[in-house]
Amino acid sequence: MAVEPNAKKRKSDDNKHSTEILSFAGFDFCKVLKNDLRSKTAFIHSQFEGKDAVILMEKTAFDANSVQEMLTEKTELVETLKNDVYSTYKTFPDKTLNGMKTTLIYPATKQHIAKYSEQEFHIVQESGKDYKKVTLPYVKNKALSNQWVYNILNKETEADRIVFEDTCPDSGFILLPDMKWDRKDMDALYLQALVHRRDILSLRDLDQSHLPLLKNILEKGLSAIKEKYGIPANKVRSYLHYQPSYYHLHVHFAHIKLDNPGFEADRAHLLTDVIENIEMKSLYYKEKTMVFKVREDDHLYKAFLEHGCIQK
Predict the structure, then answer these.
(1) Angle 125-128-132 (CA atoms, 0-180°, nearest 5)?
(2) Could you report how far apart the first and last alpha carbons of the chain are, in Å?
(3) Count of CB atoms within 10 A of residue 84's CB?
């Protein structure tokens, strides 16, 4: 479960107690798992009350109002280089303008720590038979818990963040902002549609019987985004991940200007392409060889090695 560090941790089966976190007092630093220079995000392993935590600290984008407020006497400049008309400075704005977006995963499992650690990746070519023999047992036994998804679907958490809901049990879904989006910068718009059905794990499960669901998500998701945020369909990418980060069918909606690291060719599948492929061949995603990358210390990578499914 991911929570903002100044919010109350919600109760769940894995977290019986509730603690209000208003600062990082009591957190013990363990190590920096990864420092992503591209996204300007630090991934930190910490401990709180004797349990592991993963902290994601991300520098937020500038907006017009904050830039204006920075150009005042409250911003301190320390010169680091000067050459002709060019000079560089360390810049220290007022603390009210110097905030970062922080996500806390607590209690964190070993899988969470591995997920956000710096490590090697490998390309996997997964046939339909490989999926049934290798991946599906991994999903059932090793995948991260979906409890946080069920909390949203049951309206136990984040109900106030829901942008749109279709309550149909077969073709319905909940659309809400992804935690990575600050809901201010429209060029960084990023939402997810979580289907109400709980029997569809990923792209691999989809066939012709799911076309009404997929088309409903595409049509009503884009319509809700336009109505709520004024962003037309031709400015929004809608896509699925394979492998997904969690195994409950969901669709991503992101502004075309968003430079999202999850939109690589070996992971993202456009929803319009998914629909068209299934229309041409119902079992397309059940039979297709899927290419994706996997972390070296992931149980799935080790399982593929054991079954001789990875080319070296």
Answers:
(1) 105
(2) 36
(3) 5
Calculate the dihedral angle through the C-alpha atoms of 239, 241, 246, 249, rounding to the nearest 10 degrees.
50
What pLDDT, on a 0 to 100 scale, did the predictor assign at position 19?
A: 60
Nearest to 198 by CA among 264, 261, 152, 262: 152
Give the model's confidence band at 191: pLDDT under 50 very low, under 70 low, under 90 confident, else very high.
very high
Nearest alpha carbon to residue 17 among 109, 106, 103, 105: 106
Quick: pLDDT tens for 127-150.
Answer: 999 999 999 998 888 777 899 999
Per the annotation, the verdict on 45 as an active-site residue is no
pLDDT in tens, 26-50: 899 998 888 876 777 888 999 998 8
Q: Above 90 in pLDDT, residue 229? A: yes
| Helical ranges in the chain per DSSP H | 64-70, 110-115, 128-130, 136-142, 147-153, 211-229, 271-280, 284-287, 299-306
**What's the rounded Cα separation, in Å, for the pair 214 and 278?**
10
Could you give the maximum distance between any two Cα atoms of the chain, in Å?
67
CB count within 10 Å of CB 289 equals 11
Structure tokens at 221: 């998701």
Phi, psi of 185, rounded to the nearest 5 degrees:
-80, 105
250, 255, 269, 299: the active-site residue: 250
Judging by beta carbons within 10 Å of its beta carbon (0-12, 13-18, 19+), is residue 280 exposed, middle or buried? exposed
C-alpha span between 185 and 295 (Å, rounded): 31
Residues ≥6 apart with Cβ < 8 Å to 226: 232, 233
Given this model, what pLDDT does residue 179 score? 85
